## 1
Amino acid sequence: MRDQVVAPNGAGAYPDLRGKVVVVTGSSRGIGAAIARLFAEEGAKVAVHGRDAAALSAVRDEIEWSGGRAIQVTADVTRFAEIEAMRGEIERELGPVDVLVANAGGSFTSPGPLEETSEEGWRASVDGNLTATFLTIKSFLPGMKQRKAGNIITVSSAAARRPHPMSPVPYAAAKAGIQMLTQHLAAQVGPFGIRVNCIAPETILTEGNQQRIPEAQIQPLIEQHPIRRLGTPEDVGRASLFLASEESAWITGLVLDVSGGAVMV
């Protein structure tokens, strides 16, 4: 458990986030957990989401141990009815949602020739990333429009910005769709006082990647980045804080590469 304490009176680097209600989907571990912890450290009230109850409890307990406020919720984000039920629970426990971080997703196929990709793998990747993001936004957006305020952050990938033979095509295509969804939505909802931006991380040293990437590949990966290191979940979390705060008040429709310079668009 990290030895961190919420800033006094909830006032950290972004005091305007204090007291905001924030939902981070896919926050039982990795990037999502880091985003949730950092928002809590800024004094936000955070709903951590996932389907692994034990992992969610660990993130929630860490936030509360550090002096923050968090609840845990579960839902299959490919099923609208479950998202709607989750939204109702969050609103009852914490209040109307100010910031939605649609982070849930993942890769459900391996790299390889397109013609060898199964239909099942394609649909799982599109549903688990693009459809999940669409349905999550569809649930939370009406309330934001009614209140004429809100902030939505989607999570794409460097795979959608830079074609590579080792990128699973269904995953890359779904993540590219998230970027276009973000920008179309930003154009639609700006007049309602809602901002929508997207983060596209490159190689991030999550717990899973630390286990999957062989030690011999670490240094070659590092050398692909002008900033000579791999990314951390906190790098993505800090970008999320900026996009959710008033420091970025005139930014919407942005796809922000968090890539150590490995992706430049």
Note: Residues 1-6 have pLDDT under 50 and may be disordered.
## 2
Amino acid sequence: MRRSVVMTAVVRTMICSASLLECLTAQTAASGTAKTATPADAPTPRMTDGHPDLSGVWWRGADIGGRPAAPAGTPAASGGRGNAGGAGGIQRGAAPPVTFASLYQPWAAEKAKTLGDRDDPGLRCIPVSFGTLNVSLFGVGAVGQIIATPKFVVLLTETYHSFKIIPTDGRAHRDDVPPAYRGDSVGHWEGDTFVVDTTNFSDVPWMSAEGRVSFHSDALHIVERYRRVDANTLEIEARVEDSKVLTGPWIVPKQTLTLAPFDQIMDLSCSPYVWGGEEKK
């Protein structure tokens, strides 16, 4: 398997013979502070205001691939190692999954045909607007951390120093800030579900990285729903709209994350991408 070019931009000095997303996951597990396992039947922890506490380091477990789903009929297609997010490959005869790019308007679909790995903004240390594995908490990587309080929920991605500070006190979106790579987010609770509304995106980043062509416009609007179903499980749903680029909303498949056995993500900086021995300007 070819080395991930975008993740090479993240950690230029790292040597890895497998997917770098797997390497990042393994290194995170090795470097974090080990925790005592939480019993499967433990109740959902709650904050002082009574809402579920979303705090923790969340991932899908060790051995995360981040690669496109394997073709039907191959070992990986049956749910083995190497599927994107461990979701399994496309089964024989099944319709391909709906993706952000599959909803492009005709002009956008034609533009996408002219783009590829070399055009990925991630090579310039620009974070994604959403998430390569369909989880905005992950960004480019495969693990993220949430720090929740009654007033703010903070989402920290392990790559590119990316973060979101989400107020939960009912305030409106800010109108005094320029468009941002990760947008401007506000949140509110609907029962035990935390709803995050994000607008004011810059149109520079792609939705995901690693050569997955997924450009968008400044009309991008994302609504995510976070629900901690028990002590060890976090479910995330998302609806993505972009009236300038898409033919309709992209309903992101529900993502299920588990609490990691360590309590802190690593500091993975982004350094200039090197291609053919020369820095890419």
Note: Residues 1-31, 65-89, 274-278 have pLDDT under 50 and may be disordered.
## 3
Amino acid sequence: MVMYPMSDLQFQAVYNVLSFSLASMMATTIFLWFRSFAVKDKYQSAVLISGLVTFIAAYHYMRIFNSWVNAYHYSAGHVEDGALAMSAPTLTGIPFNDAYRYMDWLLTVPLLLIEILLVMKLDEQAFSSKAWSLGTSSALMIVSGYYGELVVTGDLTPRWACWFLSMCFFLYIVNTLLVGLADATNSEADPVIAGKIRTAQVMTVISWCTYPVVYLFPMLGIEAGTAVVGIQIGYCCSDIISKCGVGLVIYQISYAKSTKEGLL
């Protein structure tokens, strides 16, 4: 990936948001895996997979963070008016590898969709059908968007083409989550549980809507360095909501269902 000069503020903004995302993923993983013992066996898979999603993300965020740090170098600061003044970082010549993020999505996005299906009222055949269709569509969405992500300046035609293709798969997934699975969500006898499942679906869709918007930054005439910073911050915020946030909602659904069945 071609790297661009960054101001100190730009570098630190990405540095801090990557660090925060890594900590969020690690903390959520530990919580979900320990709390998986608090739910009934048939719901443990959903909670364990939620923790697996954040664990995989934590690993890749560690690689992304290290790659970002290695791409830039700070020279020794100098004292100005009694304070240490730092100049902007310089490029080291080592490219920032954002492919780690797409490798992460290729693994975690299908799993994230499956964890939602696992807490819904679906028979074996319906679950298998939805899991395969959503998993395949999400993988194609990510693969089709990757090439365009490499093009930030110059001729942005490939980026536009990848955006449109990826959006086709994205809209299919959104339609399936909000419309195709509506009957299964509404079939829940407990309105509280149905509401939580709906929350998980809506949170996933809303957080994912950030991705196609952030993807457009270079096409909107935003300067390359600023676009890279905006892309990284936008993707991190979306990942925290869709992985950590939805994972915690999945745990709440599993715990609520386990408690209700225990009382019955």
Note: Strands lie at 72-73, 78-80, 83-85, 90-91.
